[in-house]
Amino acid sequence: MSKFDERTLPISIDPDTKEFITADDIRSKRIEHFLSLENLDEESFKAVVIERIKRAPELKLAVLGGGYIGKEQSLKEVMSGTSIGKDIIEIERRAINMTLKHSGE
Fold first, then answer.
1. For 11, which DSSP code?
2. What is the model's pTM?
């Protein structure tokens, strides 16, 4: 089993092609033009989060007072805009910021 690398997950969208952009794309200079997190509207960022969840090899999140949720339930929560979904979006925002901060190392 190969080791998962966070840099292979989407972090933004190419404004011209509307394709998802990964930290590896930016690091390799394959992509130079992309929307920063601050410039993504709410729906575009939500689309990035949904794609990140879909591409993640495994996903199991602990929910305080609610046990665990997996990939499919996480997708439903984000797409429905529930409070758990909003929390997942914020967690992904932080994960993307950390990935961008450390992708040059």
1. E
2. 0.86
Q: How far apart, in whole angstroms, are the C-alpha atoms of residue 57 and residue 40?
A: 25
DSSP for 59-88, please give it. -EEEETTTEEEEHHHHHHHHHHT-HHHHHH
Residue 105 has pLDDT above 70, yes or no: no
- Domain segments of the chain as ranges: 7-102
Which helix (DSSP H) or strand (DSSP E) does residue 96 occupy?
helix 83-102
Is residue 61 within 8 A of residue 72, CB to CB? The reply is no
Q: What residues contact 59, with CB distance under 8 A and at least 6 apart?
A: 53, 70, 71, 74
Burial 20-47 (b: 16+ CB within 10 A, else e): bbbbbbbeeeebeebbeeeebeeebbbb
| Residue 2: band (very low, low, confident or very high) from pLDDT cuts 50, 70, 90 | low
Q: How many residues does the chain have?
A: 105
Distances (CA, A) of 38 to 42, 69, 80, 96: 10, 28, 23, 12
Closest among 75, 72, 102 to 7, alpha carbons compared: 102
